[in-house]
Structure prediction request, 225 residues.
Amino acid sequence: MSTTPLNISLSQLNYAETAQFKLLVKQALANARTASPAFLSEDMDATTQTVTVQIAIQERMRLPTGQAWWDIPPIVNVPIVLPRGGGFSITLPLKKGDEGMLVFCDTCFDLWWHNGQAGAPLAQNASMLGLTAPSGSQRQLEVRRHHVHDCGFFPGMWSQPNVLSDYSTDSLQIRSDSGALVLELSATGVNIEGNLSVSSGASGTFTTSTGQTVTVQGGLIISIV
Prediction:
C-alpha cells in the first residue's frame, strides 16, 4: 500500500468540507416546500370550501430512462384562504383553472383543520401560564415540517396571459375580470358600472330637518331634493 501523502492543501480540504455541507443543505431545502404558484384542477367544493390544486411549476426527476420534467400530483382537500373575520367574509366563486399561490405551513394542521379550537388539549405548561382551561391550540397529528399536504390556497396571484384589462391605478375596485361590472371607490366618490339590484330594504319619501325631500327605494337613496 502506498504511503505517499496526498498533496492537498488546507484551503482545498476546507473547500471540500464546505462543498459537502452546502450539498447537504441544498438537499434538505429541496425537500422543504414553502410556497408556489398553482391553479385549480377542479371547481371548488362549496360544501367543504376546499379545492384540488395543481402546482404550476414542474420538477426535474431522475427516472430509469433519464431525467425528465414531471408534474407534481394534484393536492386534494386544500383549504381556501379568503378575507374573513368579525362575522363577515368576502367570498369568490372559484373555478377550475383559477390561479393563485399555495403556501405550505411549517407544522401538520390536520387536527386544527378538523376540530378548530374545540376539544383542544390542556397545555402542559398551563400552570406556568396560569391557565385552567384548554389553550385552544391543537396538537400535531403527525410531526412534520413544510409537508405537501399542509397548505392553503390564496387565490389571486396570476400569470401574464391573465392580466386584467384597464387596471385602475388610482382607485379601489371590486370588478369582474371582463370589466363589465365595476364597483369603484376613489377620491371623488363611489361609482358603479353595471346593473345594481337590492334584494330588501325600505322604500318611501321623507323630509329632513333642513327641508330636503329624500326618496328611498329598496334601501337606497335615489334622490335628494
In short: The two ends are 108 Å apart (CA to CA). Helices lie at 10-30, 110-115, 126-129.
